[in-house]
Write a structure and sequence with these properties.
Elements (H helix, E strand, L loop, with lengths): L1 E3 L6 E3 L1 H34 L2 H6 L3 E7 L5 H14 L3 E5 L14 E5 L3 H8 L4 E6 L15 E7 L19 E4 L2 H14 L5 E4 L3 H12 L9 E4 L8 H4 L2 H8 L4 E4 L5 H4 L1 H10 L6 E3 L6 H5 L3 E4 L4 H8 L4 E3 L20 H9 E3 L8 H9 L3 H13 L6 H20 L3 H5 L1
Helix pairs in contact: 3-6, 3-16
């Protein structure tokens, strides 16, 4: 909807209309781009008489897209694997300060695309054989499949339910790289319900968790006389800080333990006013600290127990760092906007959480110290962590190698089949 604001002649465009207009603009630009590009290719072909050379001249073999710097930990082991194999890879990022831009790689080439729609404008015209990303909603919102990108591969950024994305988030990918058999069942059920063609579902493991485990094995042990409690909530209406706010922070401070609060990165932008108010009321002190490090490795390593809600960090913490968790009421979780709403079976996350730690009841906040002490001393949670690890972290230690093996084998298959399509693509 377009309207004039009452305060003056300022044109307002609501987000839905803005997205529609952006899609129309991209369509017009894309049509113009392909028209002139096709004319150029035909002209160049008439001179060179070599279609394969013309078609592949600017084509990337492998491309990665990351919409935020916080996903560098997902792609870092994969980039290092490609670098070790001396295979060319192009890494596109929408973060100006993405760590990849400072890496000393020879075969991995990083490029900053610009934020938001600037990045999608480039991606929508990308010329590549394989595109790897952890960003959902391909071909749903602004990010469209490029006519010159042949195969899109999604890699999950959490070791839990693959149905825990916004609705239709993975429908238009060609392949999904996974870490547990139950995730394949979820994908197949969504395909059945939506009458979608089957994607390639490939179990490769979790490269970023493998990397975390290697870092942990090489790190010195923690030395502290005080117990450290890490509060790492998700964001949105189901998140701990939105639901409990000061009540939770007061209760934690009252334990006498060291408290570290690490909000979800999205909270700093989507819940800015709430975060500013809480940080003003609870400033950093000797035993209370807000954590905004790019990497969560140190804060996970140095804490003794994690309190969270539906954040994927729960599984990093329990499976890699082998420590217990306290989680909030899972019955309050609203999955209506998620792919999980289509599936009758209970989320794997909610099946396994009660075995990994203890649920924090609303009326137990005043006794949270007792809950913390109990969960850190309970041996049954160790057994449950071993079981969960087997279910959601296959091929531990092999994730980056298996990911690279799959992508390179797929590239070989695609480029072998692609040559027969050259002539029709130029018409």
């Amino acid at each position: 909807m377009l309207r004039l604001l009452a305060s003056g002649p300022i044109l307002y465009i609501d987000p839905g209309t803005g997205s529609m207009l952006f899609s129309i603009l991209i369509g017009v630009l894309g049509a113009a781009y392909y028209f002139f590009r096709s004319a150029f290719i035909k002209l160049k072909y008439s001179v060179s008489n070599n279609k394969t050379e013309v078609k592949s001249a600017s084509r990337l073999d492998y491309a990665i897209f990351s919409d935020d710097k916080r996903y560098w930990n997902i792609f870092k082991p994969i980039c290092e694997e490609f670098e070790a194999r001396q295979v060319e890879l192009t890494y596109f990022t929408a973060s100006e300060d993405d760590p990849v831009l400072n890496q000393d790689f020879q075969y991995v080439h990083a490029e900053y695309l610009g934020p938001g729609n600037r990045a999608f404008t480039r991606l929508n015209m990308l010329n590549a054989v394989i595109v790897l990303s952890t960003t959902p909603s391909l071909d749903v919102y602004q990010w469209k499949r490029s006519k010159d990108a042949q195969f899109y591969v999604h890699i999950a950024h959490m070791p839990n339910d693959i149905s825990a994305y916004e609705m239709f988030g993975l429908d238009h990918y060609d392949a999904i790289l996974l870490s547990g058999e139950y995730q394949i069942r979820q994908i197949r059920e969504l395909e059945r319900l939506r009458n979608l063609p089957e994607k390639e579902c490939v179990l490769v493991g979790l490269p970023y968790m493998d990397d975390l485990k290697r870092q942990l094995d090489a790190a010195p042990p923690k030395h502290s006389e005080r117990k450290t409690v890490l509060l790492a909530p998700s964001w949105g209406k189901n998140g701990i800080l939105r639901k409990y706010g000061s009540k939770m922070l007061d209760a934690l401070i009252g334990t006498g333990y060291d408290i570290v609060v690490r909000p979800h990165p999205q909270s700093w932008s989507s819940e800015k006013s709430m975060m500013e108010a809480l940080m003003e009321k609870y400033p950093d002190s000797e035993h209370f600290h807000w954590n905004r490090d790019t990497s969560n490795f140190e804060v996970l390593r140095c804490s003794d127990v994690l309190i969270s809600d539906f954040s994927g960090v729960i599984f990093d913490y329990t499976l890699v760092f082998d420590k217990p968790v306290i989680y909030t009421d899972i019955s309050a979780f609203d999955k209506s906007a998620w792919d999980a709403a289509w599936i009758d079976e209970e989320l794997w996350t909610f099946q396994v959480l009660p075995k990994l730690g203890e649920q924090l009841e609303d009326d137990r906040l005043d006794h949270i110290k007792e809950v913390i002490d109990r969960v850190t001393d309970e041996p049954k949670y160790q057994i449950a962590r071993n079981t969960a690890r087997a279910e959601t972290w296959v091929y531990a230690g092999e994730g980056a190698r298996r990911t690279a093996d799959y992508l390179i084998a797929k590239h070989t298959a695609l480029t072998g089949a692609f040559s027969g399509q050259e002539e029709s693509d130029l018409k």
